[in-house]
Design the sequence.
């Protein structure tokens, strides 16, 4: 009986973990393991709202470049999947604006923006702008 | 942005210059794309802080740079004659950049800063030597201040912000609040 209970608890736990992401852990893993050219800076909620034009997230971890590169990590948690979906155009607009800025300023950065990772997974939006190919694998661990 | 300074409206754009301030529609306001000057016309403000110049260091004629900078000041005075206007010195770059970059040189930045300071005196506006807050004795940016030798990291942005906080002219509203 104890074994059955343990299996049930484990299944329950696994079920939860497939829906919820520890976004702090994911942002830390990306920051610590990816090879960024610039030293990315964590920004506060008010600045996030300004640059992403998103104000209904319930949790977020956003790191931006000093301006030297287009590198960026932005992970948002919303109340539900619909809210996450509704904010995808805001992510796309941020990336388009960055492309526009960097095209004449530091053109080599546009390639990173062209290859930007933008993933919506349940109530989460994950953005990663880097030329380090291992970003996909790190994110995959959290959303599959 | 990295310092969390959010009680201010910022009109910024990568590569912005003293001429494109008037012409490039790079500011999104109420869903429209506007130039910085057009955006400013639609903004209530008492103080304005300007920093321009690093992108113009490749221009061959410094007099054109300062003429266009003067045009900006005149236009801001037209938009709001009561506004307190600060012009900030151009920030220096590291010696590595200054020695190797095709046009961004600290000697040119020094030349621009001399012109900006003189313009501020003539225009009776405020010149802020923010470069002094982040530079070494030789006037260059320390190598540890920026990964690319140009764009400040968070620590040095905070030094810049501290300088701004310490060099403030109170406007009428603030003077009344303090009395």
Sequence:
């Amino acid at each position: 009986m104890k074994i059955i209970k343990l299996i049930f608890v484990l299944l329950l736990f696994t079920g939860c973990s497939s829906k919820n992401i520890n976004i702090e852990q994911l942002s830390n893993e990306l920051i610590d393991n990816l090879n960024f050219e610039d030293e990315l800076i964590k920004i506060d909620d008010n600045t996030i709202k300004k640059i992403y034009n998103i104000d209904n997230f319930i949790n977020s971890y956003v790191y931006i470049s000093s301006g030297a590169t287009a590198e960026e990590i932005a992970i948002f948690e919303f109340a539900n999947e619909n809210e996450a979906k509704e904010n995808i155009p805001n992510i796309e607009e941020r990336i388009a604006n960055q492309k526009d800025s960097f095209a004449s300023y530091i053109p080599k950065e546009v390639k990173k923006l062209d290859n930007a990772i933008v993933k919506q997974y349940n109530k989460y939006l994950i953005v990663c702008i880097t030329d380090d190919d291992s970003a996909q694998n790190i994110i995959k661990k959290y959303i599959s | 942005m990295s310092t969390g300074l959010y009680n201010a409206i910022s009109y910024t754009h990568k590569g912005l210059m003293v001429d494109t301030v008037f012409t490039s529609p790079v500011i999104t306001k109420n869903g429209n794309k506007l130039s910085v000057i057009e955006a400013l016309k639609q903004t209530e403000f008492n103080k304005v802080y300007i920093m321009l110049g690093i992108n113009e260091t490749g221009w061959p004629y410094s007099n054109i740079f300062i003429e266009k900078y003067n045009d900006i000041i005149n236009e801001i005075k037209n938009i709001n004659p009561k506004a307190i206007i600060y012009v900030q010195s151009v920030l220096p770059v590291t010696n590595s950049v200054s020695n190797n970059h095709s046009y961004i040189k600290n000697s040119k930045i020094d030349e621009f800063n001399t012109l900006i300071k003189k313009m501020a005196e003539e225009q009776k506006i405020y010149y802020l030597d923010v470069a002094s807050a982040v530079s070494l004795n030789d006037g260059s940016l320390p190598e540890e201040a920026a990964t690319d030798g140009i764009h400040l990291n968070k620590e040095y942005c905070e030094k810049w912000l501290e300088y701004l906080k310490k060099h403030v002219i109170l406007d009428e509203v603030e003077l009344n609040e303090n009395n």
Summary: Residues 18 and 143 of chain A are 7 Å apart (CA to CA). The first strand of chain A starts at residue 41 and ends at 42. Helices of chain A lie at 2-19, 23-33, 45-52, 81-86, 88-105, 110-114, 134-143. The mean pLDDT of chain A is 89.
